[in-house]
Amino acid sequence: MVAPDRQPTLADVARWAGVSVATASRVLNRSAPVNEDTAARVERAVADLGYVRQRSPHLARGHSGAVSVVVFDDMLRYQRDSFYSRLLVGAERAALRAGRELVVSTALRNAPRDTLLRYLCGGHVDGVVMVGMPSDGAPAQVVREAGVPVMCVGRPAVAGLSYVDANNTGGARQAVSYLISSGRQAIATIAGPSNMIVADDRLAGYRSALAEGGLAPDGIVCRGDFTVDSGEHAMLRLLDRYPALDAVFAASDLMAFGALRGLRRLGVRVPDQVAVVGFDDGTLARHTMPRLTTVRQPVEEMGARAVAELLVADESCRATVLKTSLVLRESA
């Protein structure tokens, strides 16, 4: 392996030592126990590369005038999902109030990000809001190591990172409790991907409501990926396996829309035969047939709070969880 011909970063140290960025960060910060052999490899990499921990240049010369939002998703989904546009509306308003411009980037979750990280750590922005961050937390670790503040939208999988989120567990619990109180007994869920914290939190709320309502707590689960097509495919699979279903809680409005489309294809009446509830309350929810009962999360406020909290001169770890509410319409 060849040493970089520039100032080495934490990512370079991790690569040289053959460990994750999060592990390298834990060794250097002594924030969690790491076995001796791994720690020695990281320390040897630091010496070999001449790595020096330093604060971002912008901290020494005042603010740069910009805040970055990085969305870890592919460009097509970024353009199609109104969640992102609504989030950015709130973020931009907060940035303008603080006298900053908003710089928006997208990045695939599993793709190399060295160029993006060098930009974020190079003094070009006063802080970074990360949306849908990969579960290893590596991008946030690298940026924070450079002295640039980081705020996550959505509860991160790794500890020690500040975040703003909606009450995903509580919102899902309220939705499913409503279905139970309406007399529904065979309630399935179309959950999100198993590698996303938001999907796990909403699944936990679904199961909590089932247990509180005296139903089998494991429930009936089929997973999608927060897209319309995945919701439709999941709905068709569920009805094939469980024809007696009388309700479905979908972990996003897009998947709920897909579920409605699948039910329509099969001639199943909503809500007479199967009730459908989503999660988000974007514009789509008011234009489905029938109109979608869903959990409203304050997406614009999440974006605004993320930027506002990011620019607070405080390095403590902060968690802001915003309330959700159930919006009743004709689908349930």
From TrEMBL:
Stretches assigned to the HTH lacI-type domain: 8-62
One matching Pfam family: Peripla_BP_3
Record's keyword terms, sorted: DNA-binding, Transcription, Transcription regulation
CDD domains named in the record: HTH_LacI, PBP1_LacI_sugar_binding-like
InterPro entries, A to Z: HTH_LacI, LacI/GalR-like_sensor, Lambda_DNA-bd_dom_sf, Peripla_BP_I
The keyword Transmembrane appears for this protein: no
Gene Ontology molecular functions: DNA-binding transcription factor activity; transcription cis-regulatory region binding
Gene3D superfamilies associated with the record: 3.40.50.2300, lambda repressor-like DNA-binding domains
Isomerase listed as a keyword: no
Source organism superkingdom: Bacteria
Protein name listed in UniProt: DNA-binding LacI/PurR family transcriptional regulator
Native source organism of the sequence: Kutzneria buriramensis
PROSITE patterns in the record: HTH_LACI_1, HTH_LACI_2
